[in-house]
Amino acid sequence: MRDDIMVSVIEEDGGLWRNAFHIHIAPGHQSYFSIEMFHGATSGDLRLAERIVEGAKNGKFWPGTWEARIHDGGFSGWSVIRRHFHDDGSCARSPELRSCQQEHCREGFHEHLGGEPASPCVADEIRTNDYTITLQNWQEGEGWQAYSSLDGYEFTTANDLWMLDRFRNDFAYLMGEAEKLNAADPRAVVA
C-alpha cells in the first residue's frame, strides 16, 4: 500500500477513469507480480489489478496497458503505471483499502466501511478440511484472540472424535500464541 500516492480520478468521454495502482513484473520472474495500491484505493480497484495480472499470466499483455520499464539505462521489466482505467462506478463504491498498522498482522491492508475496518487483523491461521481457526484482532489495543466456528458440523463417527482432538490441540496452540502477543502489547485488553 502506497500511502504517499493518492488515487486520481478524471472525468473524460462521459465516464470516470481511475488510477489506483501500479503493477510491476521483472524479467525472468513471470510468475511474480507486484501490485502497489494507492491511498484511497478500493477493493474494486484491487479486483481490477488482480484481473490484469491474471490476464498477463495467461499471456494477455493488452496494448496500451503494459509498458517497458527502463532502470539505470537497461530493460528491467514491464509495468502498469500512470494508467487510468474506466470505472463503471463499482470501484468508487467499493470499500476503501487502508494500510494495516498492526505489527503482527500478515495483511498489508484492510477494507474499511464508514471509516471502520470490515475485517480483523490476522496473525496466524490453521485451515483443514474440517475447520479453520484464526488468530485475529479486530482493533489495536483490543487484544489477539483465537476464533473458530464449527457451525453445521455433525459428529457421527469415531473419526469425528479424532478431528475434535486435533481441533482442540490447534485451538489451544493459537490461544497460547494470542497470550504471547497480548503479553508483548501493554495496550491489549482481553475480556
Describe this structure in words.
With 191 residues, this protein is α+β, with helices and mostly antiparallel strands. It has 2 domains: 2-93, no CATH class; 100-184, no CATH class. 24% of the residues lie in helices and 36% in strands. The chain contains 3 helices and 14 strands. It has helices at 43-57, 90-93, 158-184, and strands at residues 2-6, 8-12, 15-19, 21-25, 34-39, 67-71, 74-80, 85-87, 96-99, 109-113, 116-117, 121-127, 132-137, 145-148. Strands 1-5-4-7-6 form a 5-stranded mixed beta sheet. Strand 12 (121-127) and strand 13 form a beta hairpin. The radius of gyration is 21 Å and the shape is elongated. It starts with a strand and ends in a 7-residue tail after the last helix. The mean pLDDT is 80.
Q: Describe the strand arrangement of the main beta sheet, using strand numbers.
A: 1-5-4-7-6
Number of domains: 2
What is the C-alpha radius of gyration, as a whole number of Å?
21 Å
* Coarse morphology: elongated
- Rounded average pLDDT: 80
What percentage of residues falls in helices of 4 or more residues?
Answer: 10-25%
Termini, distance in Å?
32 Å
Quickly give the structural class.
alpha+beta
Strand content: 35-45%
